[in-house]
């Protein structure tokens, strides 16, 4: 018997579908970066070494849900955290360790540094980017803001420090709707960047006056509504969980739309035994922990040109692995630096987000 749907996404009948934008051919394809092949005993030896180095160096591992399962496991077991970008930032701020090792993509390391200038922030790799961050360069974004002085600038956390410094507010997907509703209630018009799909979703849900920057996530943009429809018909008992960086047609099929943390909670809370999940498949590690008896399936994505079936995995997140994590702990390389004037300015919009969340709880 199919379970009742509990859709949180609101539809706007007159909404225009967003036209596709060309993907930068210089970006790595989703799913194209595989986990390293470890030699006999190497994986276990690296895990032991990393645990020991974290202790010796007074360091804590802060990992995103989309990173390798081994990194998530080590973060869990050593007193670090596995979280979405908001909780990663909050955790680093609260934890007493003098070094934060951020496994994720560059903007996450920068956010940690913005909030924790006195701490050393290291990353396993500095090459892990994000198409939303790359798609919103400050030299184009700042003049765009200057051309719309009547609008409050709200940027998604997936942006560089200089873009955050120009913003009035930083938000993550878990609080975007609440912040925009708050601003709308004060009569403010909004300039939103960089994710066009999340921005479009927030605009539909809140009805706020929002001008949208046009960047996208190369992972979520590839989820396909028609293939998802076919899968949903084969598994009518499955609930569909969708991250709001996905295209509108995919969001409209969702039973629950939410941030990574909200999707994990939904998997635990809903009575369904089976879920189709439209976000990076790295989230399955935590979903299986939260609901071990349930079945999780990847939503279909366009996988042309790649070797994977679903390709629902961020190629930049996949650049974090045991070898470079151990290396950075041994050598202290890959430290994140943010110029102090930019950091101070970016702190205002980022701290506003942290304070807003604290007030809501
Ligand atoms: S999954 Fe998308 S939004 Fe997340 S880091 Fe990768 S490119 Fe950026």
Description of the molecule:
The chain has helices at residues 42-56, 69-77, 85-94, 106-115, 131-134, 138-146, 161-166, 176-185, 196-206, 225-234, 248-251, 260-269, 284-290, 322-331, 340-360, and strands spanning 59-64, 81-83, 99-103, 120-122, 151-156, 169-171, 189-193, 210-212, 239-242, 256-257, 274-278, 295-298. 40% of the residues lie in helices and 14% in strands. With 361 residues, it is of the alpha/beta class. Helix 3 (85-94) runs parallel beside helix 4. The model is unreliable at 1-16 (pLDDT under 50). The relative contact order is 0.18. The longest helix has 21 residues, at 340-360. Strand 5 (151-156), helix 7 and strand 6 form a beta-alpha-beta unit. The radius of gyration is 20 Å and the shape is globular. The strands form 3 sheets. It has a 4-stranded parallel beta sheet, with helices on both faces. A 4-stranded parallel beta sheet has the order 6-5-7-8. A 4-stranded parallel beta sheet has the order 10-9-11-12, with helices on both faces. The structure holds iron/sulfur cluster (SF4).
Short characterization:
The protein is of the alpha/beta class and 361 residues long. The protein has 15 helices and twelve strands. The chain has helices at residues 42-56, 69-77, 85-94, 106-115, 131-134, 138-146, 161-166, 176-185, 196-206, 225-234, 248-251, 260-269, 284-290, 322-331, 340-360, and strands spanning 59-64, 81-83, 99-103, 120-122, 151-156, 169-171, 189-193, 210-212, 239-242, 256-257, 274-278, 295-298.
